[in-house]
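Q: Sequence in, structure out?
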Amino acid sequence: MRYSIDDAAGIRRAAQEAALILSEAAQRCRAGITTGELEALIRGDILSSGARSLFDDRSRAGSPAFPGCACFSVNEEVTHGVPGPRVLARGDVVSIDLGLDLDGWCADVATTVIVGESGGDSVAASLVRTTRELVRHAVEMIAPGVAWATIARELERRSAVGGFGVVTEFAGHGIGRSLHEPPTAPAYWTGFDGSDFVLEAGMVLTVEPILCAPREGRYPPANDGGLIRTPVHLGGDGWTVRTSDGSIAAHEERMVLVRKGGAKVLSVVE
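A: Exactly. Output:
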């Protein structure tokens, strides 16, 4: 879907508000706090902004309504982690994902932090850094006339070179009046069963790589030099998705406007 300049301004306001709330949540992510306490703080920020949560009571076939305004996925949890009494500890890898509606425009953003740490050469630090770099590389490539497959293949290649696995069950997407709109924009290409599309000015997409790594190091290179896929499974709560091999996961999501000559990141997370 393509949006007008006026429409894009509305989406940008929602994206900026969501990014601000997410940035503050990431800063609050310290040892000793529970994911439920973080969720309550985010809920207050969303209400104070005049927006409404898009995750509260969200339904999915076979699962109970989601009990929160944000997802907190820790270590081997990939996405859709349910907030609750879990106490965060130093070194935990925490992905926070939230969505909101502001004046009829939707925003969807995510980021990953390591509790009590910044930078460094650990496996977790490299994983988080590489996942964020994939977003940057995608933004640099986005421009009208570019086929998404070109971008997806490059993101897949960079993931494999780094020795990181890719979660292929989730992908970026269009966003605007609805949380999920076409097209589907994966951060990989091998085995993708959807359709390619050509970027056009006015499109608003989420760039959303999810990478994984074994706790003790990187994955060995794939035999064909291509996609390293990390298997996942759904937890007993009906929402939390976990890696099946115990690998840690990092999830980054940014909203991007395609415009003449390139791209504009609408949700800058500090």
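The chain has a mean pLDDT of 95.
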